[in-house]
Amino acid sequence: LLCPCLIYGAYVFLPFDAPLLPTISARLVYTLRCAAFATFPIVLGMIVTGISRLCSSALEPFGELQQEVEIHRTCVSQSIHLFILYFFNMAVLATYLPQELLKLIPLLTGLFAISRLTFWLSYAISRSFRAFGFSMTFLPLLAMLLWNLYGMFVLEPEGLLS
């Protein structure tokens, strides 16, 4: 319930609009530029993983990982997988959205970054709290996938493969 409320509140109250993007290629470039910001939690996680690996008390650098190193490594790995799915769905979504709804692309990017940081923090505190951060990432991804499938098969079935 929180994800749609956050997206709607940001859509209504944040004072920016998407630039005029009449072509599909312009929309894909816009999505690509927005997606660059979604890599922030992944890069930050890689840095923290490297630092925690350097500072860990393990004598063998390629041996078994400490729990604090494993937490960061797991979060980075999951974030990379989810980012790939999220980005591809956002790229397809950008091709189906009308111009006035293209403001959703940077909002969904921001939600992804905040959600992954929330997941990482909650996963580091206690593994039982990680469902909140994961659902804030996965449920918008699922909604985008369903909208994309609807757009491909119902709105524009003639342009499915062209």
From TrEMBL:
<protein>
    <submittedName>
        <fullName>TMM79 protein</fullName>
    </submittedName>
</protein>
<dbReference type="GO" id="GO:0032588">
    <property type="term" value="C:trans-Golgi network membrane"/>
</dbReference>
<keyword id="KW-0472">Membrane</keyword>
<keyword id="KW-1133">Transmembrane helix</keyword>
<dbReference type="GO" id="GO:0045055">
    <property type="term" value="P:regulated exocytosis"/>
</dbReference>
<feature type="transmembrane region" description="Helical">
    <location>
        <begin position="104"/>
        <end position="125"/>
    </location>
</feature>
<keyword id="KW-0812">Transmembrane</keyword>
<feature type="transmembrane region" description="Helical">
    <location>
        <begin position="132"/>
        <end position="153"/>
    </location>
</feature>
<dbReference type="GO" id="GO:0005765">
    <property type="term" value="C:lysosomal membrane"/>
</dbReference>
<feature type="transmembrane region" description="Helical">
    <location>
        <begin position="30"/>
        <end position="51"/>
    </location>
</feature>
<feature type="transmembrane region" description="Helical">
    <location>
        <begin position="80"/>
        <end position="98"/>
    </location>
</feature>
